[in-house]
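WARN retry 2 of 3 for item q-0093 after timeout on previous attempt; input resubmitted unchanged.
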Amino acid sequence: MIHWLHGLVWGPGLLCLLLGTGLFLTWRSRLFQIRGFPVWWKATAGSLFRKKKEAAGTLSAGAVNPIQAACTALAATIGTGNIVGVATALTAGGPGAIFWMWISALLGMMTAYSETYLGIRYRKRGADGQWLGGPCACLSEGLGMPGLALLYGILCLLASLGMGSMVQSNAMAQTLQFTLNLPNLAAGILITLLVTGIAAGGIGRIAFVSQGLIPAAALVYTVFSAAVLWSCRERIPSVLAEIFRYALLPEAFAGGTAGYGISRAFRYGIARGVFSNEAGLGTLAGLHSATEETSPGEQGMWAMFEVFFDTIFICTLTALVILCAAGGAEGLERSACDGAALTGWCFQKVLGTAGQWLVSGAMLVFAFSTTIAWYFLGKQTLKAVLELAGKAFPRLRLWEERLELAYLFLYGYAVFLGCVCSLTAVWELSDIWNGLMAVPNLAALFLLRKELRFGGESG
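OK item q-0093 returned
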């Protein structure tokens, strides 16, 4: 039943809806992700190399600055999808899946911009003075649909207890067992204590940890990937040719096996791209909702950069390493590995034991940072849900602090369960929640499209 429902939710309809929304927003913005590259790059990554501005006023409680928000959002998006998801897409859909992953990211950049822009545009302060934004704010404040906002919030909370916690902690526990022979129970206790300890400190502590972990981990992963690609540099042209050939092979349209291959490449490339960068799910908007000293356009451009960095940069590095080290499409077919094992085998083949340790370390850091970032997203969503439900049931507001504490314990318990249990059903359930989240979020983007401004456009 769960498998059937998963296939129904993540069927051609949702994939086309995600692509169609991104295509529509790309057209409406007049290819802003391409023509506006100097603008959004200067406003995001380029700003890191400029002289820092004079310190602004003190941030309010529960708020972060734009750089911290970007690192927290990257922490949520750069996770197991960058290692496991890319390898799975390649083994299931072939080299052509990477082409469609690029297309997903290119269009998703405008989806991410739009959902974040509107999430900041319609955010408001809750009863405790902290910012509440994201899709819940768009649906309730922008469209006057509190019921739909409540539904999105519930789906997001379910996703946080699945994809955000259990799936990520399972990846960490499996990695620790493989590399250090650490029992799952011991790994579960250790990971749960670390996650809950950081999460209990609120967004300030989460942002501080993310700001330290993500740039360092991404830099190390990039350097080691570049070392592999330099060793296999003579294979890069043929690998790039395979990516385009398997995605756009003319004779494939005649049907048969090749046509089926293109269908699989399309499906897995788009699906894994969304799994990695989360564009279209509304999560990026929620992660940016606590940002101060900013504007909707600035945060929208940071969201674009996050999709670009996560998928077009990091995922492409992983894909090229796998294809170059494995020997292209033929090597993939002969390989008995999949997921993180395939990525680790490719790094180890070129760099030896250091390569295997790199993949294990990257998996741990990426998955851990995703886990703490998703807790923040879940807590923000819980606040929004209580704010909405509190209008009908005022007594709920009296229980807000207790419910937030209960969510922290529940999240920690989900992290622990992820370490010690098999997650076959959890993976599919989490995918279902993610897919269902996209529907009201994409509907809000379309209905509020006239409110969007891109780059330097004026209102």
